[in-house]
Amino acid sequence: MSDTELQRSESFMATETDSGMASDAAIVRRDEEIFQEMKSRETDFTFKIMCVGDYTGFGKKGGFVSDYIHRRPLSFYHKPTIGVDFYLNFITWSDQTTNQDFTVKLQFWDVAEHERFLKMTSVFCRNCVGALVFWGPKSPSPLGSVLKWGEKIKEANPKDANIPLVLIIENIPTSKRGKPVDWIGPGKLIENKVLLDEFCARNGFVGWFQLVSREEDGYTGVMTRAVDCLVQNIFKQRNLRKP
């Protein structure tokens, strides 16, 4: 069990509105009120977290983050990312070693994977403290393609050599009756999980998590553990404490 655990989460997503009977104007007013309240909320730390990766063959990176924030099943409607989208989440992080509680604002930056936006990636990645890197066995890009995103983050932050990365492998079946791609094993994309662990450790990834199901634990539960892992390593590597 880790020294830290996620206790409470509050959220606001800047790019999506709820469906329902409320008018668009009412939704806009509500979101603006929430956003203004959150901007003024005092926090101990603000973490800028990048969401990067090539197209996984299924979903939108920001959609996965949004569903994690709102603790909901897999959503199929998400507007395409043009340039960058932003998502906010507020958590209380409890450090059991120091018995300190921290209020943390997580800023998720979902960067479009389209070629014409790649030149802006270095600009978007400046001053980030961690990243979720998405890849999937259905993707036309090989697993090694995730390395370029780590390099872009390093290039954007030359004075910060230890920015933790978490690899998220999107392997959700495209239909309810479908099965995840069997991609780990002899003769497959990677021989075994040990080699995947070594690949991650060698290239700055502090962990990897696989999305394999539309159900709660196989989807938002995995996303929660992935973000938990990233936040834990941000605190650990930066040795963060209250003044």
Automatic annotation (TrEMBL):
The keyword Transport does not apply. Gene3D superfamilies: P-loop containing nucleotide triphosphate hydrolases (3.40.50.300). Residues 1-20 are annotated as: Disordered. PROSITE patterns: RAB. One of its GO terms (molecular function) is GTP binding. The keyword Nucleotide-binding applies. Keywords: GTP-binding, Nucleotide-binding. Residues 9-20 have a biased composition (Polar residues). This is Ras-related protein Rab. It comes from Pocillopora damicornis (Cauliflower coral).
